[in-house]
Amino acid sequence: MSSKFFTNKESNSLFEKFKGIFEYQNVSCFDALVGYFRASGYFKLRPFLEKVPEIRILVGINADSLIAEAKRKGQLYLENPEKTKEEYLNFVAKDIESASYDSETEKSILQFIGDIISGKVQIRAYGQKNLHAKIYIFRPKPFNQHTLASVITGSSNLTDSGLGTYDNANYEFNVQLNDFQDVKFATDEFEDLWKDATDLIPADISKLKSKTYLGDEKITPHDLFLKMLVEYFGDSAIRDKVGSISLPDGYTNLQYQADAVTEGFHKLLKHNGFILADVVGLGKTIIATRIIKKYIDKNGYNTKVLVVYPNALETNWKTTVRDFGISNYVDFVSNGSLHKIIEGNSINYQKPEDYDLIIVDEAHKFRTSSTTMYGLLELICKTPRATVGNDVDRKKKVILITATPLNNKPEDIANQIYLFQDSRKSTLEGVPNLQSFFADKIEKYKKLYLIKDHAELVSKVREIYEPIREKIFSELVIRRTRADIRKIARYYEDVISQGMTFPDVVGPNKIEYQFSPEQELTFYDTINAVIDQLGYYRYRAIEFLNPEHAEIYDNAQLISLQLSTIMKTQLVKRLESSFRAFKKSLYRFYISNQRMIEMFENDKVFIAPDIDVNKFLDEGREDELEAKIEELNAESPNNQIFKASDFSEEYIKGLLKDQEVLLEIYERWENIGEDPKTKKFIAEIKKSFFDKKNIEKKLVIFSESKETVEYIAEELKNIGREDVLAISASNSKQRFATIRKNFDANYPEKQEDQYNIIITTEVLAEGINLHRSNIILNYDIPWNATKLMQRIGRVNRIGTKADKIYVYNFFPTSQSNDLIKLNEKALKKLQGFHSAFSEDSKVYSEEEQLIENTLGNLQPQEEVDERLQYLEIVRELFEKDFQQYQRIKKLPLKSRVGRFAKIKSDVAKEIISQSLENTVLCYLRNKIKEGFYVANDKNCVEVTFYQAVKLFEATKIEKSTAVFENHFDAVNNAVNQFKKVYNTIYTVEDYDTSNLSVSERNAVLFLNSLKDLKRSFPAELSDEFIEMIDASLRIIYMGVFRKFRNEISNLASKQKKKKMPLEKVISEVNQIMNRYPIANIARLDALRAEEENQPKVFEEPKIVITETFA
């Protein structure tokens, strides 16, 4: 028996009912009353409506929102027909925007619009109250008790899913009634509503069409290029006013700084942190302080901020924060005192969980994740906030400040990013697993030493760093160089108008020196001995302990290798610095080695392997490091006393062999003669360093060695220079005021000229202005290339009177270059830095290249950030032609244009290595991901923003051509690729549980093995402990505390060797977990569990714009 009800199951659908009625009944009038009406649904019915003379469609709008708006204003809701019309037309425009992108759907939309304009269909919108009813009335003419008519009512709207035209369509519940009284009642109700509804006339629908991509407006390729930029940069172009807060007296509101404040604040909220990496001298401290103030305003007045800084920057930070009136919200801690916060027993500091915002100045000091200092900072940054203000995210906000965030390797920048991003669950679109992203870059970097050709080296380094720059830095880094500011007219005009200037950097200029033949031979033999002959056994004692003592020191071989490598490096660097520095280091090594031999003779050997080597290196205290190694090896703070028989015989033999080599070198250096570098230096002092290009007759000299600083200061005094100031870590604080009075162009009080030459170690490479000088001499080249950047930044700063900065470098001798490959190492570091961040000027040699479109340019121009240039196009449009900006912004989504492929042939070959003929260029996005694609009907490739913008770029005079007809398949190919990548990245799991590193895998296996023991040992493994294990696993999978996974992995290795009892294992696991906020994270996990178990809903990508290439 046939039922009157139907539900869209199988063939029992609304569409089939419609089909039957239109085919077998005489329908002269069709009325539809629906809450939602889509053109796609209309198109399915259109063939049946061809011969129906009278068609009326009555649609509802979202009257609830209008009623609520009236209530908020304290008004009675009275329908405004114009508002009703606008509401419906906007709904239809959005429907067209989100409709499927194919030929059939497009025809249906155009058919619907055409039918209304021609009068075939009448349509009205009802706005007096919400319409939830769905009624479809089919009447003949005449309509009476003797003619067949029908009414269908139920839950189905006039949409594809409501009609049931495809599998898995909506479940609906509808009924068909054929009784005359039922149809008449429905008709009467419809007539009453129709009478009170707002008519949509053909002119309204024509206006609607113009609001969609199907409108008749002529769009040019240049329009679409601007649309791409406006959509990509969002409101970046109009954030300027937000950053223009009032500043304290004495501070200048520079436009480039105001833009950095607004852009930085946006990144802070979006990604929980960012890196402020403007080149030295552009005012990063002021920018950061303005962002702090802005964050306090947003989060509320209980906000607590922690500023982490090296000692040299203390005065500058405290002064700036005080000037901005936010001292009550800010605590200060030096790099070396982070433990005071973790210990939680200092009245001067909050607990880690009580801070909301962390500022880390000179953040490149935290580039190595294995250091104690890094581990402490990671703990502070990653511990969730105990209380939240208006910023309700539990994760802290972090600003890293550094002009030189990249030091040696890709992991340097990765480690810094991990201070505010989870390494395996990032906030970055397209790169959810940062650890996997960086892994292959790190491996490629390790192989660079095999490359001999400089041009190939530059190419390979660029290959490593370009993806980092495009995918990571574009989102997480704000960096402007002086070249950027010069290039952007608005910035440069602002700087000039305020009486400031940016000098050009001339150089680096080589200063080379020659050895005598005897010195050359000694030098060669010394290098050979230092690198190849010495075994550095003095620093490898624990490596040669007999097996019964081996377990006392974990990683004995690694520690020995590190210490011996450091001492080897120190000797080579001292050799490059000065004869004086090398002879002193050599003598200390000789004495130290002899001391160890004497310990063996006395049968009492003290060993002290515990030393924070990186701390000394990070702070530039390398002379102190050498002394500390001697001190610890002699005093043995671990109080381990061994007998000679506790070591293998090989060890004492190695010590004796080293002593023979050291004695031979020492004796030869006793008669080495005059240092030719010093001789050349004195000559240049008299000749070129104080000529007319030296504006204020001031000279800044840097050396890595305190002994070299003291030595050349003596030599200058010997030639009658009494205006020499020698600075090292031992006197920098005491002489701070003197330095400022004599060398800081921004010193507000009376400047002095008691000292005109300052010779300093790295202690003054940051945190102080020395820009009364426009001449800088690097007496020795530091192996750490970022120190070179920092050194030059002391004189290349806002406020200098000079229009040129001159950089001079003493170059290592050819022998040294050949043997230790210093040149290749420095080039590798600097090219990595330039490729990733770009830099104002060359700092090492003429062979170094800044990023250009081609390789091999040995006279590079200053690098500019392309992204900034494109952003400035939008900002200029907004400022200078707001009407055009508004027109471009209002261009509907799905806007498209046809172009000729030959216009972009060269660019296409560079980017995709083939022609663009018969392809489409698509810009797609949803709330989580956006992407750019080049596709045809068979293939699709995703391109970066930097590549896409070059393809979209067009001149104002370029004419468009017709969009080719079969482009729909190509666009949908791009959409499918977007979905494929999206599903892989975002919807499989909350975080990546594969692609684990060795230490992560070991830690996970170990913790899971403990969980597996729960059944056998329920008393020992409590439920609370298992919850902590689960939280620990989540932390490892997400990459929150990277040092945590290493500690668990090390415990796993220890357990494998020693087979500790379960009680001991649980105790050690608890000790590790108690050093981290695991319990707090476990509690937050429980609170989030219900929310996170909600099913994820995929958001279809929107087609922003499309170009076809004929």
UniProtKB/TrEMBL annotation:
Pfam families: Helicase_C, PLDc_2, ResIII. The keyword Cell wall biogenesis/degradation does not apply. The keyword Mitochondrion does not apply. SUPFAM superfamilies: P-loop containing nucleoside triphosphate hydrolases. Keywords: Hydrolase. PANTHER family: DNA ANNEALING HELICASE AND ENDONUCLEASE ZRANB3 FAMILY MEMBER, SWI_SNF-RELATED MATRIX-ASSOCIATED ACTIN-DEPENDENT REGULATOR OF CHROMATIN SUBFAMILY A-LIKE PROTEIN 1. This is PLD-like domain-containing protein. It comes from Soonwooa buanensis.
